[in-house]
Amino acid sequence: MASPSQTSPIRIGLIGCGEIAQVAHIPTINFLSTKFTLTYLCDINPKALAFCASRCSSASPPKTTQDAKELCASENVDAVLVCSSDAYHVVHGVYALKNGKHVFIEKPLALCQFDIQILKKVESTSKGRVFVGYMRRYASAFLDAVKELGGTEGVQYVKVRDIICPNSIFINQSGTFPQKFDGISEEEKQAFSEREDQVTHEALVVDMGLAITEKRKTMLRLLGGLGSHDLSAMRELLGMPRGVLGARLSPTMWTVLFDYPNFAVTYESGFNNIPLFDASIEIFTEDKVVTVKYDTPYVKGLPTTIVVREKAGDGTAYQERVLRTSYEDPYTKQMGEWWECIVNGKEPKTTIDDAALELDLFKMILRAAD
Ligand SMILES: NC(=O)c1ccc[n+]([C@@H]2O[C@H](COP(=O)([O-])OP(=O)(O)OC[C@H]3O[C@@H](n4cnc5c(N)ncnc54)[C@H](O)[C@@H]3O)[C@@H](O)[C@H]2O)c1
């Protein structure tokens, strides 16, 4: 592997040329051209591959392949960005690490402990490190909230909300004009469904001791998809809960009550058709309420903010503060952090061990809903 240096952009091999690659990762890397350049793309779908290659503004057109192993082994790749389907994250992460490459893996890192253990083992003997793409945790407003709160002392109650409309509503207005393509072979479809079944079995039956049902399968996918954004932010702010007091799970709307030693957290999430991205974390303490407000990440430049409502003056006065430290979007912030990890050896906060805690939360939630 060529040694990346601060003066030459890190050469990225990207696996998974789907929606998030087209809407976020490729445009972000194009903008960050002094830090990164796309040199290799992989997808099992040749049409998606060709389309994404045309979207890269690298100095030379990126090479393309349908074989993730080939990309990971390439001399033209310093680091690998995995944004393929959930079930393949660990498979692709392993290829990258075995070739001594740093690897960014989109959330959810994994859905079962078996995969987490494999990845940890391979990482322990690799020159590469895993960076998990929990981008909301790199948003300025989130970091401001962590600072503003300064720990969980004095927390009385927390509300985590993520109620959104179908992503397509935002994506169609994002100005990135992504495309979806048919064109995956029957053999690939079969391999994909077998891999999904294997992961589902490991997650529900082996890890959680639950029978596989359609509803649990869907909820596992939703918690790994939308849920992992909220739950990982909750963990960073508050640590792990000791359990779940109750949960009502429906694939359109779900509610969970987490039990922390001195307070409870309501986590409410789901989908409706109102074109609104209603995502926030609201932390109540005796003297102030801190709210992190997220807008859709698909429209670049929409700010995340924190709002602090608090007592002021002699204690009978009230004030509200709105803080918007930066217009820089979370994907850009996140890529800047990954660059620091690759070039300057900074330890990421979103590691394999960190992401493994997510699986404990999924287990608590799914078991409580029985
Ligand atoms: N951080 C975020 O904000 C965010 C947002 C959306 C999606 N995601 C995550 O990113 C990942 C991709 O999501 P998406 O919406 O782009 O999905 P998508 O289905 O649109 O794209 C996935 C792509 O991966 C390709 N792929 C699947 N298996 C492959 C394999 N074995 N080898 C090579 N290519 C393969 C598919 O052909 C497809 O083009 C998911 O894990 C999702 O959870 C993260």
What's the total helix number? 11
- Spatial separation of the terminal alpha carbons: 49 Å
Q: What are the bound molecules?
A: nicotinamide-adenine-dinucleotide
What would CATH call the architecture of the largest domain? Answer: 2-Layer Sandwich
The fold-level CATH name of the largest domain is: Dihydrodipicolinate Reductase, domain 2
Oligomer: single chain
Largest sheet: 8 strands, mixed
Q: If you compute it from the alpha carbons, what radius of gyration comes out, rounded to the nearest whole angstrom?
A: 21 Å
Strand and helix order: EHEHEHEHEHEHEHHHEEEEEEEHH
Helix and strand content put the structural class at alpha/beta
Coarse shape:
globular
Helix content: 25-40%
Strand content: 25-35%
Strand order of the largest sheet: 8-9-10-7-11-12-13-14
Number of strands: 14
CATH class of the largest domain: Alpha Beta
Summarize model confidence as the mean pLDDT. 96
Low-confidence stretches: none
Give the tally of structural domains. Answer: 2
Organism: Arthrobotrys oligospora (strain ATCC 24927 / CBS 115.81 / DSM 1491) (Nematode-trapping fungus)
GO cellular component, one term: cytoplasm
Pfam families: GFO_IDH_MocA
GO molecular function: nucleotide binding; oxidoreductase activity
Note down, in words, how this protein is organized.
- With about 375 residues, the chain is α/β, with parallel strands linked by helices.
- The chain contains 11 helices and 14 strands.
- An 8-stranded mixed β-sheet has the order 8-9-10-7-11-12-13-14, covered by helices on one side. A 6-stranded parallel β-sheet has the order 3-2-1-4-5-6, sandwiched between helices.
- Helix 2 links the parallel strand 2 and strand 3.
- The longest helix has 25 residues.
- The mean pLDDT is about 95.
- The structure holds nicotinamide-adenine-dinucleotide.
- The site of nicotinamide-adenine-dinucleotide has 24 residues, from helix 1.
- Nicotinamide-adenine-dinucleotide binds next to helix 1.
